[in-house]
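BUG: 3D viewer hangs when loading the predicted structure for this chain

Environment: internal workstation, default settings.
Expected: structure renders.
Actual: progress bar stalls at 90%.

Input used:
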Amino acid sequence: MIQFKKQIMLFLCLCSFAVNAQNTYKRWSEIIRKSDAAWFATADAKRVSENVLLYQRDIGGWPKNIQMQDELNEKQKKDLIALKKTAVETTTDNGATCQEMLFMSRMYAQVKDERYRESFLKGLNYLLEAQYPNGGWPQFYPLKKGYYTHITYNDDSMVNIMNVIKAVADESDYYSIKPSKEIVDKCRKSFDKGIDCILKTQYKQNGVLTAWCAQHDEVTLAPANARAFELASLSGYESAKIVLLLMSIDKPSRDVVIAVKSAVEWFQKTKITNLEEKRVLNDAGKIVDKKMIPATNAKPIWARFMDLETNEPFFCDRDGIRKKSLDQIGSERRNGYSWYSDAPEEVLKRFPDWAVKNGTKVGAAEKKIVDYITVAQDGSGDFTKIQDAIYATPAFPYEKVTIFIKNGIYNEKVRIPEWNTHVFLKGESKENTIITFDDNFSRIALGRNSTFYTYTLLVEGDDFTASNLTIKNTSGEHGQAIALSVVANRAKITNCILLGNQDTLYLSGKDAKQYFKDCYIEGTTDFIFGGATALFENCMIHSIKSSYITAASTPEGTPFGFVFKNCKLTANPEAKDVYLGRPWRIYAKTVFINCDMGNQIKPEGWENWSKPEAEKKSFYAEYNCSGEGFQPSKRVKWSYQLSKKEATQYSIENILKDKIANWYSL
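Structure tokens produced before the viewer hung:
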């Protein structure tokens, strides 16, 4: 009997040790997530909950890196009570606040103590209050000086917050505590703002959407530095959790779909399969060294820090100096930080099913549509409408997407969005492949800027090409009515016919370069206008009536505006008084070189549009032109006749110079 009692006592001691081992000696975050639901009804769980309540500040947040299961003495408890009103170190870094809210939810599911419910709701209010108006979250709130104010994706801080808010907004069963409808509505708005911030901070590399940085400036949204060894860079780790969050959205918007697809393409492009991490451990199992060793067909990994322009991995010590390999930094940072991650592998694993669910082609099917799409009104192509073909093109493809348009009159308003780059609209013939619409200023009726909505074809996506097409606005003499609007960079239009009246061709875009070759362009007033740098070569410029050909709005400091080389200026018989141009904005630049000018061109050539200041700040010039309309001695005094030396500066290489060399010849 005595022996039996000893066995019972030993069993109870072992049980007690097991409970303590499970809940005292494990990490706090593991206790929250891995403990069985029944444990949250135990006396030990209630003891821990008292600690968690003590650590929560009145503002609703918690500090980070606290092992909240540890016993507290009376002095520690007293100190925590004193700290409650201070909001000292409240944060969402390293899972703080979000994990304590989960703990309170799991406690409330087992024990209906209203303090747990109130604690959870205070935490939720803290998250909502901490959000910036632009949708992002700082690392600490109230704001703490330094890099902590940046929008923080680092260590999944913002994603953790948004997962909490999403669960509440979706009224899911993940949390046992159900907030009021008012709070649910706040969470829905907060989540939408957060997604908008995520979309706006996705980094564009040479015009192509890629991934995210660990921190983004809270005002400009640009990539930002954090600690000395955490320089602005594309993150292989943090980006993965962001994409998984986007993929969790039911019925995602087109912008979300594009963001996911673009990030997946970047993950595919940047994965590393020729290295493996080798860890050297001491007798206590602690990492004493990390080495990257060459391997063949290794499991994919991604660098945590990649160059913003080249995607090259880099590594930093506490001196903030970039190194090319892990072995070039000291052991403290080398072994005390996660420099590589396999997190994007989960994104790539889930993407095919997600893509099918959300109407996105993957694999061989995507490759098929990337290369070539045919539009034919008789149903013999992939689509009968041009816009439907554009909807089917991938976002930010690496290669050109050709949309071949068979002969026909396509009466539709067409938009090529900025994410549909590298689109090539190729008509079967310029006379018989016609895109036409008849919007005009009065019909749009959206106020003073209605002109810009009147387009027949709007090009926003960079690296656009069009050839063998007629693009037409048929509204007639009803005010401003754009046929072709190009607000993209590196746009090339060849062998096309552009027809309209007032404002036929609008050219704009920040630092945009555009090239027109062998085209016929027709209109009345200001029928070539805008602020882009545009070169017209071997084009026919036809005036329907007496008015103005160009109305440039070249930005101050831009070296070139509109340049016409080897063009022929013609007109209808009734058009007898045509100006070469007038300044829409006072820094307008327009130059005609080696052009044949008909007698419709007025001797004075240029007009100041009642802007005397433009006579000093605009630049209107000609060189070596011919025809009855070329009367250099009679031009307005504030225009120029270029010298031969000056004219040599107007080469295609100089005018259309861009970071992508010779793009106009590709």
